[in-house]
Design brief:
Layout (H helix, E strand, L loop, with lengths): L1 H26 L2 H11 L6 H10 L6 H9 L6 E3 L5 E3 L32 H36 L4 H15 L2 H12 L7 H6 L22 H31 L2 H8 L4 H13 L1 H17 L1 H6 L5 H10 L3 H29 L7
Antiparallel strand pairs: 1-2
Helix pairs in contact: 1-15, 2-3, 5-6, 5-9, 5-12, 5-14, 5-15, 6-9, 7-9, 9-11, 9-12, 10-11, 12-15, 14-15
Length: about 350
């Protein structure tokens, strides 16, 4: 097991380096750098001014060298102007250049400064990841138990009426994208002129004009059921159907195995067969799907967070991409790659605990 983990960690590091270099190369293309130079100087800056700014800020160096500087394995660039003033990647404004560290990259905890939020990237990511973390937590709390319950109930008796009803619901929820289900939920539960809210308000059953809030902006300060339920439901509905379908397929396959038939012929209670014999083996495939929900939630909440104006990781990613914030985009890519690789490692290790017969080659 230890050798397997070490080997996988090595592969993860190489994969992370390759993916982050690709993102670094794409975000540092010449058109993006020219746009960045004009946003930092003047929109009407002429070509000599643009090239001068890029030269004085280290963007004219080779791509691989700049990637090493950003990563923190190569000493940061320095530039001396005509007046003798020394600036550099690792030199803070007003600081003594001689006291500045040689390296200041991701490995040293220096993620750069966001040109949109005018704050260090690490602070922006910490705030946005904290907000998205709460959203992911409540989505998983709602989604995973509901999906497993639906999948197990559907797969216990394949072809029954319960199976057909639950399978129809799972297919419908999976086939409905988040931007459609989110709009439907807002119109039905958070509109003052349509849906359920006007009826409840007319009967005096709710204090305000709407049952739920159509925006989750206030949840950034304080999460309540009324301002957080709709974004959670929007994301959970899509994932419930997918996990439930995988659980049903796995449960149906397990229920046809010989050891299940033998247990039923011996008179073992059906509940005992499900809980002690079938469920553990049936959870191997859904376990992978559940672990893959974490990177999907981190990167797939862009639509939901934008729709409900919830300023989490997805909303931050949209702002960085729309405003050519290169440092923030690179920071988002590091977080996304890390989450994907770690969840895949946990998924592989979890296989062994769910089914010891699985051998590690």
């Amino acid at each position: 097991m230890l050798l397997f983990i070490i080997r996988r960690l090595g592969v993860m590091i190489l994969t992370a380096l390759a993916l982050t270099f690709i993102v670094f190369m794409l975000t540092n293309l010449e058109p993006n750098l020219r746009k960045l130079a004009k946003s930092e100087t003047s929109v009407r800056a002429e070509e000599p001014e643009v090239q001068s700014w890029l030269e004085s800020n280290g963007y004219k160096r080779p791509m691989v060298l700049r990637y090493g500087e950003w990563l923190g394995v190569v000493p940061g660039w320095t530039h001396t102007d005509d007046a003798g003033k020394v600036t550099g990647r690792c030199i803070a404004p007003g600081a003594d250049p001689a006291a500045a560290p040689a390296r200041c990259g991701v490995l040293q905890g220096e993620w750069g400064r966001s040109t949109v939020f005018k704050q260090p990237v690490s602070e922006v990511l910490a705030r946005s990841l904290g907000a998205t973390g709460w959203l992911m937590f409540w989505v998983m709390v709602v989604m995973v138990p509901s999906a497993l319950l639906l999948g197990v109930l559907s797969g216990m008796r394949e072809g029954s009426r319960t199976d057909r009803v639950l399978s129809t619901f799972a297919i419908a929820s999976t086939a409905t994208p988040e931007y459609v289900s989110g709009v439907i939920l807002i119109a039905f539960l958070a509109s003052a002129t349509a849906g359920l809210s006007p009826i409840l308000s007319g009967w005096g059953l709710i204090e305000g004009k709407t049952l739920f809030q159509g925006t989750a902006t206030s949840a950034m300060d304080k999460i309540t059921f009324w301002n957080f339920a709709l974004p959670v439901m929007t994301i959970a509905l899509y994932g419930i159907g997918y996990i439930a379908r995988m659980t049903r397929a796995s449960m149906t396959e397990v229920m046809t195995q010989q050891y299940i038939r033998t247990a039923r012929l011996k008179g073992v209670a059906f509940r005992t067969i499900i809980l002690r014999h079938a469920l553990r083996n049936a959870l191997i495939a859904p376990f992978t799907v559940i672990m893959l929900q974490f990177p999907w939630l981190l990167n797939g909440v862009v639509i939901v967070e934008t729709l409900f104006n919830y300023k989490g990781f997805g909303w931050t990613l949209v702002q960085a991409a729309g405003n050519n914030d290169i440092q923030l985009l690179l920071g988002c890519s590091v977080v996304a790659v890390f989450v994907v690789l770690v969840t895949q490692l946990i998924s592989d290790i979890g296989y062994v605990f769910l089914n010891p017969r699985i051998r590690l080659s």
